[in-house]
Amino acid sequence: MNTTATATAPTPAARLSVRVLGNLSVRRGTTTLDAAGLGGPKPRQILEILVLNLGSPVSKDQLVDTIWAGRPPAEGTATLESYVSVLRRHLQPGAGRSGPLRTTTGGYVLDRDAVDLDLDDFDAVLRAGEATADPDAAYGLVVEALRLGSVTLLADEVRPSWVQAARDLHAARVHSARVRAAELAVGTGRFAAAVGWARAAVEEDPLDERAWCLLIRSLELDGRPAEGLRAYERCRRVLEREVGCAPGPQLQATFVRLLQATADGADDFSQALAALLAIQEQLSRTSDVAPDTARPVAPAVRESLRAAGTVVDSFLRRALAST
């Protein structure tokens, strides 16, 4: 009679729930493992690399090169394999190689079907928001994606150099989502919310003119034109200081539209704006007409117009600084 023991059969591995947005956390059934509970810094980094490549094999050579920053020990591959064994004992105790962390030809892979990843949730909700044609529904989905994902990727990784590219990619997607949320908020009449999303976007990337346009436009629509004019002035200074250029055509058009809307008011500030626009229009007319048909403009008149423009412009800058 066959008396071979059956107790040594691998224990079925529990499904893993992994969080990489913010601090690393792994839940296995009712057990939660933080970064310190994965067997040390190197096993933790192996897991992080595999998680960021969830479902795709990563070669041993790539893992060795990454976790030792291109300077592996003499027995790098053997040391890597020992770290993987340590990691398996924490992730899938008793399951051996049959758990989520699997061996492939020349490397390792985390089985996507056995892992729930918070980064996947962020991606799925954001894609749904991008795909829907209903602006209100799209706005809700993008806001939900931002709620899920607006944190640093692997924030507690103590050696961030190898993960920086992934962090930058995630941060860029979050930034784009904030700009999209501002656009959708403007389109659905949520002007105060649009100001908040656009302001957050320009704080993240002060050189993003699309975000500045949305901030200025949403401030105008929210009944805060003076703040919109100050925002443009700040943008102009940032662009001049950082890249040595003036705002682009779209941003300038947004500014001119705001100037024209503000000039319709009856207070002193609005009247000064109206005067400036009139001066600019007159200067444009005198410079745009063909020389052979232009009515001669006396140099003194032209100089007076320019001087007046300088005075009004100086007034506006002081007004914007004090409002």
Structural class: alpha+beta
Number of strands: 7
- Average pLDDT taken over every residue: 83
Q: Span from first to last CA? A: 94 Å
Per CATH, what is the topology of one domain? Arc Repressor Mutant, subunit A
Please estimate the helix content: 55-70%
Written as H for each helix and E for each strand, in order along the chain, the element string is EEEHEHHEEEHHHHHHHHH
Q: For the CA atoms, what is the radius of gyration?
A: 30 Å
Poorly predicted regions: 3-7
CATH class of one domain: Mainly Alpha
What's the overall geometry? elongated
Estimated share of beta-strand residues: 5-15%
What order do the strands of the largest sheet run in, or round the barrel if closed? 3-2-1-7
CATH superfamily of one domain: Winged helix-like DNA-binding domain superfamily/Winged helix DNA-binding domain
| Shape-level CATH architecture of one domain | Orthogonal Bundle
Number of helices: 12
Largest sheet: 4 strands, mixed
GO molecular function: DNA binding
Organism: Georgenia muralis
Keywords: DNA-binding, Transcription, Transcription regulation
Family: Belongs to the AfsR/DnrI/RedD regulatory family.
Verbal overview:
The protein is of the alpha+beta class and 323 residues long. Among the domains are: 92 residues, Arc Repressor Mutant, subunit A (Orthogonal Bundle), CATH 1.10.10; 50 residues. The protein is 60% helix and 8% strand. It is built from 12 helices and 7 strands. The strands form 2 sheets. Strands 3-2-1-7 form a 4-stranded mixed β-sheet. The protein has a 3-stranded antiparallel β-sheet with strand order 4-6-5. The chain starts with 15 loop residues before the first strand and ends with a helix.
